Amino acid sequence: MRVSNLVVLVPLFVSLVANSAAGTETKYAARMESFVGAPCRNSNTPTLNEMIDWLIVSSKDDRHDSRIINRIEFIDQPESLLHLFTILTSYHDPFGKMDANVDSNPLHWSWRQFKKIPRYFSRSTSVIEAMQDIFGNELGVALLYIAARNGLNASHLAYNLEPHVGNPVPWDFHDLLKLYRVIDDFPPGSFSFSDKRFTRDSSFKEGIIGNAVINIYDPWLRIEPWFQEYAIAHELAHNLAYQNGLSLDGSTDWKSIGRWEELPPGTPNPNPVPIEDIFKGNWITRAPNETVSLYAQSNPSEDFAESVMAYRYDPEILLQKSATKYTFIRDSVFHGLQFLSSSDCGIAFNRP
Ligand SMILES: [Zn+2]
Q: Residue 319: inside a domain, yes or no?
């Protein structure tokens, strides 16, 4: 199995869970006030027209081409938009890899796949208009924009053919754009996504809000708006551990800093975290006072994601709990950039 496949599988075991007696104030790394008021927040949700303009301008110097993709005929379209259409409407396997054979050779489709091939229909020969015909005026544009700008594939159609993981459903346009309330809170270049899954999924009706795959589940729809943003940022934070083939959250250094030990399966955990999470494993930290939240006490991965969240949105808490974790996150994830006050913002976001 290729390394990138393993990297995709690992986040399946880290999920954000909602159903606990603990309030969000102590359960997660940043309180509402500190999250909403954190320095250097860069949120700028684009409008529909801004997204269309951006797509046109950013592709205007492309080579243009005419060809049929997934039964739609395109004429004289920018190469980058044709590529985006392909990844947003083609079958991806459970590891998130696009299967080029599915489109080029339908004889290879299984009957189950064939039955579930969406009946794309568009009278337009332009990528943007075809996307609007297939996904709706707003969502069609947003999917192109997010894939182009951030390398995230939020199309349910890319992931809902058999065999698949979960039950992807279309994003609500306004819900999807909540991504832009948080993704630019991280310094430019933090994420190097390419065709990375970012789906709304209806597999879980209760409990699990999301995971680092990234899937966002139905309970996310019912949490407060600020916490919806927090949840997206938390799942993005997990992905900061998996950049460049690394697994920072499972590294010896990180586990040693957090004094993490994995108990053999079935061994009674003397310090069970009071949070229900079927995926958290049987981990115990010998330094629970150095974690930023109850949720961080689940396992080294949640400790990492929550420490990143505290570093970004409530850094004093992380400094107070563990200066060693603060330094680790500062140097390994944020390349020295800090967010202790708004005077740090210029350094963080106005780099050439
Ligand atoms: Zn998590």
A: yes
Range of the domain at 81: 48-175
Q: Is residue 200 part of a domain?
A: no
CA of 84 to the centre of ligand 1 (A): 29
Determine the distance separating the centroid of ligand 1 and the alpha carbon of 197, expressed in angstroms. 16
Q: If you measure from the C-alpha of residue 211 to the centroid of ligand 1, how many angstroms do you get, rounded to a whole number?
A: 6
Last residue of a domain, one of 140, 175, 210: 175
Cα of 235 to ligand 1 centre, how many Å? 6
pLDDT 10s digits, 35-77: 999 988 878 899 999 999 999 999 999 999 999 888 899 999 9
Cβ contacts of residue 346 below 8 Å, gap of 6+? none
The predicted structure's pLDDT at residue 281? 76
147 and 63 together in one domain: yes
CB 157 within 8 A of CB 118: yes
- Residues 53, 170 within the same domain: yes
- Same domain for 100 and 15? no
Please give the tally of structural domains in the chain.
Answer: 2
Residues 108 and 16 in one domain: no
Q: Is position 252 within any domain?
A: yes
Q: Between helices 79-89 and 127-135, what is the axis angle to 10°? A: 20
Give the Å distance between the CA of 352 and the centre of ligand 1. 32
Q: By C-alpha distance, which of 308, 299, 189 is closest to 244? A: 189
pLDDT of the residue at 36:
92
CA of 14 to the centre of ligand 1 (A): 5
Residues 60 and 33 in one domain: no
Q: What is the pTM of this model?
A: 0.88
Is 203 within a domain? Answer: no
Q: Is 54 exposed, middle or buried (0-12, 13-18, 19+ CB in 10 A)?
A: middle
For residue 231, the CA-to-ligand 1 centroid distance in Å is 8
User: Which residues, by Cβ under 5 Å, contact ligand 1, an ion?
Assistant: 14, 16, 302, 305
Rounded to the nearest angstrom, the distance between the alpha carbon of 339 and the centre of ligand 1 is: 22
Is 292:258 a contact under the CB 8 Å cutoff? no
